[in-house]
């Protein structure tokens, strides 16, 4: 569930961060973003990874047994 939720939040956030740096430049009808814009937008991915590792530390392994 967290994977789907994280993707649903991260993708629009990455797009928003990309558009913050957009200077209105278009190339062949598509918006042009600089390398710095991508660095700013994609910084969300390592942050998501760190959050996932922290949450993983609190998950209990059941070894395929029914939980009571």
Written description of the protein model:
The structure is a single chain. By secondary structure, the chain is mostly helical. Helix content is 60%, strand content 6%. It is built from three helices and two strands. It has helices at 2-21, 35-42, 44-56; strands at 26-27, 30-31. A two-stranded antiparallel ribbon has the order 1-2. Strand 1 and strand 2 (30-31) form a beta hairpin. Helix 1 (2-21) packs antiparallel against helix 3. The protein is elongated and about 60 Å long. The mean pLDDT is 86.
Can you write the helix and strand succession as a string?
Answer: HEEHH
What structural category do the secondary elements indicate? mainly alpha
What is the spatial order of strands in the main beta sheet?
1-2
What is the mean predicted local confidence, pLDDT? 86
Strand element count: 2
**Count of alpha/pi helices:** 3
Distance between the termini: 21 Å
Helix content: 55-70%
- Sheet having the most strands: 2 strands, antiparallel
What percent of residues are in strands? 5-15%
Provide the gyration radius in Å: 18 Å
Choose one word for the global shape: elongated
Unreliable stretches (pLDDT < 50, length at least 5) are none
